[in-house]
């Protein structure tokens, strides 16, 4: 399946990592990671840094799936607001999820410091807008919940929003703990770092057609009949992880994004914050290192790639219209646009760890709008599982929250 269509900015902006290394023999490794996107990359980073022998397998060109279509906004906020999540899953788990997300942004920053990779990582602030009166009510409830649990937040009323951001709206929440990055540049840079430092094996393109649980591990079989023997297999294949799951645990959605031509630096809003809103589906935007505006949203339930792709032109017009409503004095020209497919869950949380009874197949499924921060959490949790260390985050993000029928 095509994961995206159009011209994703990162794949145009960066030189292609032209890497070709198909598997040509049977192979044995301690840990096999399926997927070379930002999730598989972060998992490999954690394993390599702790002396765990691993190898990556991907059916596509390296890091050329959903990673290139990401708008790469790193926020501790989760798609489900904290005050609603507390009602849904309980205070301890909800607050634990938000605190883990907050910590993961710093952990990602430390990955760049450790590897020296220049992935255009930059700390920025976030402005979370009330889209309407219901959104403003939600914003106020959210503010109280975050303050109660000592999470970074500041409430902007109508007057403050207009003064600080020039936006005529009801109000917003602000925090200065977010970040942004270039996902493709980051993923390929980190992989190259570990190929050099730890001789990380990467096999691409390699299609895994079958897998079998064997004593003390798994045997994977490629479409060419080669066998991969491993003690653990890590599934970091996004929504394409379906072939490795006993049942579907995610919903598929189509999303749309664009990037403008560069504008003058004087035209940008306060701190070049990440901006998003309470409406569902929500509109979101950020800036890039070369002074462009990137925005996205207009999500729809995914049905098939052709329908998703046909909607692109109309969705781009709607995104521009939403931007013009916020900032009518900023003239933008669309330079590139794309659409992609992503996964979400009913409770807004990812799935990390093993399926009950399958201890040696581990999942790093960063579903939702916070995929990259969830991926960092998954990488650490999986590292700890393999090392035999307890990690309380498995109780928050694990499959144990599913009912016997596979529902949340």
Textual characterization of the structure:
It is a single chain. By secondary structure, this protein is an alpha+beta fold. The chain folds into 2 domains: 4-70 and 184-250 and 348-401, FAD/NAD(P)-binding domain, CATH 3.50.50; 122-178 and 252-344, D-Amino Acid Oxidase, Chain A, domain 2, CATH 3.30.9. It has 11 helices and 18 strands. Strand 13 (274-277) and strand 14 form a beta hairpin. The longest helix has 25 residues, at 91-115. The protein starts with a strand and ends in an 11-residue tail after the last helix. The relative contact order is 0.19.
Low-pLDDT segments: none
Percent of residues in beta strands: 25-35%
Q: How many domains comprise the coordinates?
A: 2
**What is the 3D form?**
globular
Taking the alpha carbons of the first and last residues, their distance comes to: 27 Å
Can you give the helix content as a percent range?
Answer: 25-40%
Give the topology, please.
Elements: E1 4-6, H1 9-13, E2 27-34, H2 38-49, E3 54-57, E4 73-74, H3 82-89, H4 91-115, E5 122-129, H5 133-148, E6 154-157, H6 158-165, E7 171-180, H7 183-198, E8 202-203, E9 208-214, E10 217-222, E11 227-235, E12 251-260, E13 274-277, E14 284-287, E15 293-301, H8 305-310, H9 312-326, E16 334-344, E17 351-355, E18 358-365, H10 371-387, H11 393-397
Parallel strand pairs: 2-3, 2-11, 3-8, 5-13, 11-18
Antiparallel strand pairs: 1-16, 4-7, 5-7, 6-7, 9-10, 10-11, 12-15, 12-16, 13-14, 14-15, 17-18
Helix pairs in contact: 2-7, 2-10, 3-4, 4-10
């Amino acid at each position: 399946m095509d994961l995206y269509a159009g011209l994703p900015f990162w794949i145009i902006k960066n030189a292609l990592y032209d890497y070709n290394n198909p598997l040509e023999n049977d192979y044995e490794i301690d840990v096999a990671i399926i997927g070379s996107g930002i999730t598989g990359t972060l998992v490999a980073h954690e394993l390599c840094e702790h002396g765990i022998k691993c190898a990556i397998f991907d059916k596509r060109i390296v890091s050329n799936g959903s990673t290139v279509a990401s708008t790469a906004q790193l926020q501790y906020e989760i798609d489900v607001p904290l005050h609603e999540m507390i009602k849904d899953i309980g205070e301890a788990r909800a607050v634990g999820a938000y605190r883990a997300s907050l910590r993961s942004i710093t952990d990602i920053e430390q990955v760049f410091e450790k590897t020296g990779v220049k992935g255009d990582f930059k700390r920025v602030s976030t402005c979370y807008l009330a889209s309407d009166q219901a959104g403003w009510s939600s914003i106020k409830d959210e503010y109280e919940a975050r303050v109660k649990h000592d999470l970074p937040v500041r409430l902007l009323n109508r007057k403050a929003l207009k003064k600080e951001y020039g936006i005529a709206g009801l109000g917003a929440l602000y925090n200065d703990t977010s970040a942004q990055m270039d996902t493709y540049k980051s993923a390929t840079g980190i992989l190259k770092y570990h190929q050099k430092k730890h001789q990380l094996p990467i096999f691409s393109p390699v299609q895994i057609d079958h897998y079998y649980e064997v004593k003390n591990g798994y045997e994977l079989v490629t479409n060419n009949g080669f066998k991969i023997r491993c003690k653990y297999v890590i599934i970091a294949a996004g929504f394409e992880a379906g072939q490795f799951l006993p049942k579907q645990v995610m919903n598929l959605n189509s999303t749309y994004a664009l990037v403008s031509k560069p504008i003058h630096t004087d035209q940008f809003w306060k701190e070049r914050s990440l901006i998003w809103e309470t409406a569902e589906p929500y509109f979101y935007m950020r800036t890039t290192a070369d002074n462009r505006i990137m925005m996205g949203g207009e999500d729809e339930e995914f049905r098939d790639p052709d329908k998703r792709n046909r909607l692109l032109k109309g969705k781009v017009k709607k995104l521009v219209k939403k931007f013009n409503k916020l900032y009518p004095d900023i003239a933008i020209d669309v330079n590139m646009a794309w659409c992609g497919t992503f996964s979400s869950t009913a409770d807004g949380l990812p799935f990390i760890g093993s399926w009950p009874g399958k201890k040696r197949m581990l999942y790093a499924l960063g579903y939702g709008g916070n995929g990259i921060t969830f991926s960092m959490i998954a990488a650490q949790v999986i590292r700890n599982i393999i090392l035999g260390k307890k990690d309380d985050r498995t109780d928050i993000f694990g499959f144990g929250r599913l009912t016997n029928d596979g529902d949340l």
